[in-house]
Amino acid sequence: SFCTWSKNQSFQIRRVLHLQVESAAFNKRAIRKNPYHPPLFLLNLGYNYLMIGEDNEADAVFKSILSGTANNLRANAEALRGLSATAVFRGDMDKAREHFRKMIEIGPKASVARLMRVIYVWKDKAFLKKFLDALRKLGLPEA
C-alpha cells in the first residue's frame, strides 16, 4: 500500500542522511587526529556536507582544498566540481560556470561517464541524480 511504501522510503532517506552525518563526523575526527591528512579526507568531508544539504560548509571545505593543495590538480578539480554543484544548487549560474571552467582547464577529459566510475557507489541515488544534473547544466558531456 502507499502508506507502507511511504514509511519505507522515509526510513531509507533517514538512514542515508544518518550515514552521511556519521561519515562527516568520522572525517572531521580523522582530519583532527592527522594534521598532515591527504586531500581525500577533506574531499570526503565536503561531499558529506553536500549530501546532507550543508552547502555553505561544503563550500568552505572545497575552498580550503583550493587554498591548501596548489600542487594536487586532482584534488583541485574535485573541489571545483563540488563548488560548481553548490553554485548550481543555489542558482548562482555565473559562479557555477566560473568554477566549472576552471575544473575543465585542469581536467579537459571530464565527463559523466568518467565521474560515474568513482561516484557510482553513492547510496543516495536522488542526490547522485541532482549532482549529475547540476554538472550537465554546466555542459559536462556524457562521454
Give a written overview of the molecule.
This protein has 143 residues and is mostly helical. Helix content is 78%, strand content 0%. The protein has seven helices and no strands. The termini are far apart. Residues 1-14 have low confidence and may be disordered.
Question: Major β-sheet, in short?
Answer: none
> How many separate helices?
7
Structural class computed from helices and strand pairing: mainly alpha
Mean pLDDT: 83
Q: Into which percentage range does the β-strand content fall?
A: under 5%
Global Rg: 16 Å
Q: How many β strands by DSSP?
A: 0
Helix content: over 70%
Ends distance: 40 Å
The string of secondary-structure elements, in order, is HHHHHHH
> Looking at the structure, what is the overall shape?
globular
List segments where confidence is low: pLDDT < 50 over at least 5 consecutive residues: 1-14
Fold topology:
Blueprint: H1 2-33, H2 39-51, H3 55-68, H4 73-90, H5 93-106, H6 112-119, H7 125-137
Condensed summary:
With 143 residues, this protein is an all-alpha fold. The chain is 78% helix and 0% strand. It has helices spanning 2-33, 39-51, 55-68, 73-90, 93-106, 112-119, 125-137.
Which key terms come to mind for this protein?
143 residues, mainly alpha, 7 helices, disordered N terminus
